[in-house]
Specification:
The complex is a heterodimer of chains A (179) and B (160). Chain A is built from three helices and eight strands; from the N terminus they run H-H-E-H-E-E-E-E-E-E-E. Chain A has 179 residues and is of the alpha+beta class. Chain B has one domain. Helices cover 36% and strands 28% of the residues of chain B. Classes of the chains: A alpha+beta (179), B alpha+beta (160).
Chain lengths: 179, 160
């Protein structure tokens, strides 16, 4: 007795080379498009982050610094914290340290320091109040750690703060102390 | 009625259809996401220009507040009396990537109508018994973004 192992209706023919090539080609195209979509989103995120300093951080820094400078009675610029604490002469350009003097309501004078200092992740624009003892401690707070550089100068009698961002952006804020 | 087995529906070619659906969907999704990205980044470009131009104008304002009255009213004043004006090309700042943004600053000063005639007004000892000199020092910054021209101004009022 012969047995027929090929059951009708269950025939599963293999794919031809053309079908396989077509399927692989389409698969590659779909994968390519997905990759393109992903890259597009990554590019968008890069652009978005690159704009972050100018659109968000710089106005915040300006808002803070202009208010502080506007309330000050006078200021001095120093090239570095070491130059300031070492008793070097103040400068009019390329300064990273701004010493502000405020007159209190009772007539006493208080001073504070705005400085761009530190390195690596700690690099930033810091604010510290000079205590009555005159001994400088750690900064009270960081105004921002995003700028690549901050420098102060005086032009035409106007205090200018040059901010450089992490992506090559730069802008200059100006202010005057109270008169 | 005798049982009649259904013929098996052929599904050959369905993979091609599904792949076309997938690609069409991905292409549509890419376009929608691109449009959304542009919708988000375009206003931010405008914001960047605002930030940089606002930053530059802080200088104009501070300078007008800082200069002495004599310098402001001198013949070589940076703010000549209207309709005279001074015009200066300036670099307002740099965008991400270091692209500079240029602008033009036009400066002029306008005397208060209540100034004495010698100071550009029509005031008298009755209307201006203290002899006050009041001037508006105006700086107009013009710059272009995407082919459009924008003007932004700052005015400082000084008196003596």
């Amino acid at each position: 007795m012969r047995t027929n192992f090929r059951r009708p209706g269950r025939l599963r023919r293999g794919y031809t080379l053309v079908e396989l090539t077509l399927a692989m080609g389409i698969g590659i195209m779909v994968a390519g498009m997905s990759l393109l979509l992903f890259n597009q989103q990554m590019a968008f995120l890069r652009i978005f982050r690159a704009q972050d300093f100018l659109s968000r951080e710089a106005p915040l820094i300006n808002n803070y610094v202009v208010r502080v400078i506007g309330a000050a009675e006078g200021y001095r610029l120093y090239t570095s914290m070491e130059a300031m604490t070492g008793g070097q002469d103040p400068v009019l350009a390329d300064a990273t340290v701004l010493v502000l003097r405020f007159r209190e309501a009772d007539g006493t004078v208080r001073a504070s320091v705005l400085s761009f200092e530190g390195s690596g992740d700690d690099q930033g624009l810091y604010y510290r109040v000079i205590p009555e003892s005159g001994v400088l401690g750690d900064p009270d707070w960081a105004v921002s750690k995003q700028p690549a550089s901050v420098s102060f100068s005086v032009e035409q009698g106007v205090l200018r703060m040059h901010l450089a961002g992490p992506n090559g952006e730069s802008l200059v804020y100006s202010g005057t102390q109270q008169s | 009625m005798p049982f009649a087995p259904r013929r098996r529906k052929s599904r050959r070619g369905s993979v091609l259809l599904e792949a076309v659906y997938a690609m069409t969907f991905l292409a549509g999704l890419a376009l929608v996401l691109l449009k959304l990205s542009i919708n988000v980044t375009a206003p931010r470009q405008w914001t960047l220009q605002q930030t940089v131009s606002d930053a530059y104008l802080t200088y104009e304002k501070a300078w007008a507040q800082r200069l002495s009255f004599a310098d402001l009213l001198a013949a070589d004043s940076p703010w000549p009396e209207y309709p005279a004006k001074s015009e200066v090309e300036v670099e307002m700042g740099r965008l991400p990537g270091g692209t500079p943004i240029q602008g033009t600053v036009v400066r002029t000063r306008v005397p208060d109508p209540n100034n004495y005639p010698a100071d550009g007004g029509t005031g008298t000892t009755t209307t201006n018994p203290a002899g006050m000199k009041v001037f508006r020092f105006q700086s107009l910054l013009t710059y272009e973004v995407g082919g459009r021209s924008y003007v932004k101004s700052r005015t400082v009022v000084r008196s003596q």
